[in-house]
Amino acid sequence: MIATVRTAAALRAALAPWRREGLRIGFVPTMGALHRGHAALVEHALAACDRVVVSVFVNPTQFAPNEDFARYPRTEEADAALLDRVGAQVLYAPAVEEIYPPGDATRVTVAGLTEPMEGAIRPHFFTGVATVCARLFCHVQPDATFFGEKDYQQLLVVRRMARDLGLGVEVIGVPTVREPDGLALSSRNAYLSASERAAAPALHRVLQRVAAGLRDGASMATLAPEAMRALVHAGFTAPDYLDLREAETLAPLDRLDATPARLLVAARLGTTRLIDNIPVQRA
Ligand code: AMP
């Protein structure tokens, strides 16, 4: 049975015997409303570690006032049941005051990687993410932590932060889990109406089509306008970005070269903002 703990002190007490035994502790941070994508992170963690802690915490500092913090889905009972089935040992579900104590005044800001794409559209976002991850890593003190490639820029930002602060936690990326029609699983998919859900796989289809064009030697300058039109035709608003970037540095690219690259997109369907990305390699 999974143990649910709500304070850093209770968490430390739960983990102490395992640490004494020298067991390797894996950690999967989430905002809950768990789905098969989160389950895949836990499965990777269980394969690489002896014990796995999962946090469910809807982090207020990564939402802007106009964003969906209040209506973000909260389904703790179902989350605990899913984690129990997958085999995680501990669910850490702290209250906001446990993570942000009264008088809280500390933020963690990562330069560079946070500036384009998600950071340009949501300026508050990565400081919120880096701050909550740094705090959760201090509470859990894991050996390794597992992040989805679905939020690719976030994965790189958290890895940079953990290295820069010398937290001694390995940040491991896990491939995106998708629906059979290609839509990346996301807690926010629950917001989609039936017709929006039917339109949503266009995001992944467009990425694949652009990737094929890039492999044929075409440039983003020639491929992007048609891809944007295809998204709008499918019912999306004009994308916030559709970028080809170096996979490690996120430096912009116009064409594929020998460097590993990533193709990333963000666009809205009605009021729901969806993001996706895929790796792209020269053929
Ligand atoms: P969230 O609860 O949306 O903040 O996500 C928690 C973690 O799950 C993050 O590391 C996400 O990248 C990861 N994640 C979300 N959706 C997926 C997915 N479809 N496949 C793999 N990982 C995912």
Please tell me about this protein's structure.
This protein is α/β, with parallel strands linked by helices and 283 residues long. It has two domains: 3-174, HUPs (Rossmann fold); 187-280, Pantoate--beta-alanine Ligase, Chain: A,domain 2 (2-Layer Sandwich), CATH 3.30.1300.10. It has ten helices and ten strands. A six-stranded parallel sheet has the order 1-4-3-2-5-6, sandwiched between helices. A four-stranded antiparallel sheet has the order 8-7-9-10, covered by helices on one side. A hairpin with a 5-residue loop joins strand 7 and strand 8. Helix 9 packs antiparallel against helix 10. The chain is globular, with a radius of gyration of 19 Å. The mean pLDDT is 98. Adenosine monophosphate binds next to helix 2 and strand 5.
Ligands, deduplicated: adenosine monophosphate
Strand segment tally: 10
SS summary, helix count: 10
Assembly type of the shown chains? single chain
* SS strand fraction: 15-25%
Overall CATH class of the largest domain: Alpha Beta
Q: Tell me the CATH superfamily of the largest domain.
A: HUPs
Rg computed from alpha carbons, rounded to a whole number of angstroms: 19 Å
Features:
Rossmann fold, binds adenosine monophosphate, 2 domains, 10 strands, 283 residues, Pantoate--beta-alanine Ligase, Chain: A,domain 2, 4-stranded antiparallel β-sheet, alpha/beta
